[in-house]
Amino acid sequence: MPDHRLLLLFLSFMLLAPSLGAWSSEQQIPPSVILDDDFSYAKLTDKTYVLLDPQRQLGIEDVSSSGRQSDFRLKHGKIGFTDAAVWIRFLLESRFTTKQTVILEVDFPLIDKIEFYEMDGKGNYRPRFGGDTIPFGLREIEFRNTLFKIELEPGQAATYYMKFTSRGPIQLPLRIWNYQIFTEHSTSSHLWHGLYFGAILLLIVASVVGYNLFRASFFLWYAFYLSCYWLLNFTLVGLAGQFLWPETPILQQYATSLLVNLVVIGAVVFSGKLLDIRKYSHAYFLIFRVVIILALLGIVISIAGRLEIANRIASLSGMALVPILISAAIVTYRRGNFAARYFLVAWGVFLIFVFISGLYYWGMLPYGFVTAHALQIGSVFEVTMLGVATADRVRLLNKEKEEADRLANKYLVLLNEKLEDLVHERTVELEESNRKLHELATHDSLTLLLNHNAIIHALESAISAVERHRQPLSIAMVDIDRFKRINDRFGHQVGDDVLVAIANTFTSSLRGYDIAGRYGGEEFLLILPQTSMEDAGELIERLRQSIADLSFTGTQGKRVTISVGMIAYLHGIKMDADAMIRCADDALYRAKANGRDRIEWGNCTTILKSNNST
């Protein structure tokens, strides 16, 4: 069969392949995502309604109005390249027994701008922002994908809106995560990515070593191709934006189209040298040169800033590259280049995954593990087989270099040891990331004190300790006097400043083994282990006076005071965390009733004995 007919066959297959996307049909789905206490994670891909805004003129007031709700349609997360703004709507229904924080993940790091809208306490939608135009230091959680924290009260049902705009493809693989489960998932995800990219780095180094041993130029071009491909995949999964240019998001926007074209150039030059294309097919030698010129043109378009065009061209170039290389390998193999057989197998398998990835980015295939990671899956097989093809090419060119092979194996052993060191280093980094996520899950984001759940857990642990060792324990329930009046008169920013200043006073005034937490709103819970009633009273009185002496620029000279209810643990009477808090809260009520800016001790012996007898 003539060369041009082989090429035409593969290009026809490429053009017909998009029809494969038609298999994904829309179906009726539940109207909301239900989250309960056993919830780990939930996919939102099939539970989101989509509205396209071609003119990019709609705001949150427009899309959230009742008249616009019928314009939303199910899209199953398949959007692809579009100049329109993409609005989505989804509903979360909480069946938690306590207030919970969940994570919303957008598992597609290439979107330029993401706007997330949730209802505030005043009936207005409050925006938060993400996407690869946002520096990592400004993100809510520093992770390769855009993440948003959502606070859910028991029984709460809320509708959320999101807006996506991008000069590249838009996909909507959304997930809601349990906070702890997401921490574990992110750790394992980074570990596997570290192994994958570490293995490709090993092949890059091996290619450079191969060039030093055999002085064959295709080794260097293979190293160039693998390096560009490594960096491209590092960008596609969001790790480049996180670790290579976290504060320069403009590089993330330009990187994809530039790297795709560099990958095309590297693959074509390497393939031409490995297949000896000039010798076996002059027609394909000319085709290869045309492909290189088109890739250089794509680079120029990217640098010129026309990313909406450059990204589309880059996607089509990546899909067209593999059929061209496969047809070239068939021609050279039929004409006597038997080294092409490994090359043909490598690119033949990779072709399938390139088309899957291309159809996914164009919005013709739904989100799934295979579609979202098609390039990574195919490349594992492809780079391995290309390595075999390269080795076979060397064997055919120079069979007598057995000693050189022995030295290459020695280098590979050393490289494996370096890879183990790399994985160990990555594991240490992931453990640190895990620690930071745990810190976010247990501490209040404003005051940096323990949050409600964490301070309750700390009190339960303290009670268990005093019961075992018969030690004293006191707690204090602290409330800022007339805090609502501060918010109403001077604004919520001043209110936040007051909360932070009082929290800092707790941190600086309490002892190293004392524990402070934000119980809720303007209330704080202080745990004083190994502290008698007398010592606890003196400590909290000094703390009360320190807070009364604070000055705030935003309160126009008005003093800020606290009222405190205290309780000491009573040995011999069963007291749990709930009982101590109720008694302290009762004392706090009396402190406020008796004039505020004072400390009252609770005496709930009768109540506790009555409860125990019941």
What class do helices, strands and sheet pairing give? alpha+beta
Name the overall outline.
Answer: elongated
Helix content: 40-55%
Name the poorly predicted regions.
1-30
The description of the largest β-sheet is: 7 strands, mixed
Count, helices: 19
Strand content: 15-25%
Rg measurement, Å: 32 Å
* Mean pLDDT reading: 82
Record field, number of beta strands: 18
CA-to-CA gap between the ends?
A: 93 Å
Task: Give the gist of this structure.
The protein is of the alpha+beta class and 614 residues long. 55% of the residues lie in helices and 17% in strands.
Question: Can you tag this structure with a few keywords?
Answer:
18 strands; elongated; 17% strand; 614 residues; seven-stranded mixed beta sheet; alpha+beta; disordered N terminus; five-stranded mixed beta sheet; single chain
